[in-house]
Amino acid sequence: MAKPDNLYELPQNLPVPVDDGATNHLLGLQVPAISLMSTAGIFVDLASLAGRSVVYCYPLTGRPDLDNIPQGWNQIAGARGCTPQSCAFRDRYQELKTLGVKCFGLSGQSTEYQQEAVKRLHLPFELLSDLELAFTKSLKLPTFELDSRTFIKRLTLILSSGRIEKVFYPVFPPDRNAEEVIDWLSHNPQKNDA
Questions:
Q1: Distance of alpha carbon 40 from alpha carbon 154, whole angstroms
Q2: Which of 33, 52, 98, 118 is such that its CA lies 20 to 30 A from the CA of 44?
Q3: pLDDT band at 143, cuts 50/70/90?
């Protein structure tokens, strides 16, 4: 494991991810009825939520107190930037609420690990743990392998009553994703029948 540099900033010259078509099948799909543990200590079933929800999926949140970033992480296109992405959604959270949208982050990390990130980053929304990758596998979300571990590639879903209405993929730079999501939501108001 490499000692992380500043987790709150994106290093210069990160490789830019390309759209490999790995999310082309998602638009219009109903998400699976899978209960995911949230950092609030409750189970959340994204399929059962009424209205609009934003779910940003990310590979791994680093921790300043741990050497938990795998060697070569910055060289993997799209891997780096989970903390700046989460902070951007935190900073734009009131705008999402004004738009009537629920917000969640989702990763394959444990709830306990995610709870540290929620506390340290002062996130006003819940993170969801897909530790067994059941949600990820059910939707065939894109993943990558490193050090014998599977990570979810960075993507963002906008759900309308559990159905995938919009997919942002690839997401780069990650710290601009919240702005892109809010812009899309502002130009695509929720239909009354959703």
A1: 23
A2: 98
A3: very high
